[in-house]
Amino acid sequence: MISGVEGPPYERLKRLGLLGSAKRRLRGYAVRIYKILNTKEKVVKPHTPLIKFPDRQSTPKLKIQESLQARVPPLHGSAIPLSVGSKQPVLENISPISRVQGVPDTSELVRTLPQKYRRKTMSDEEMEFIQRGGPE
Prior knowledge:
It is found in: Mitochondrion. Keywords: Mitochondrion, Ribonucleoprotein, Ribosomal protein. Belongs to the alpha-ketoglutarate dehydrogenase component 4 family. The chain is mainly alpha-helical. It contains 5 helices and no strands. The chain is elongated.
């Protein structure tokens, strides 16, 4: 008999054959409570965020027209020289400072990329295969 346990609940468990499982369950609860009471308190370190996002609520939103005007420089102030005999502008003679500041040209980006990040060159056979839409 379990010490300190008497009465109808004990008798009912004994009749149903659940006394052993009840002991195991009680022992499991006791072990959990013992572990909880004997664990040392863990100090929680303050969270330091690794990424900081801009405060979007306090910054004023620009209207679409204002943002477009801020990005596009005026064209009437600078004239692009044309090469003799062609209608295309000569951009080699223009200093880099006079060019539009902002996003660099795609070809300039490709030249500065390391080889492992560049697009792989395609053979003529691959291009023809793609153009005709697959195998014949």
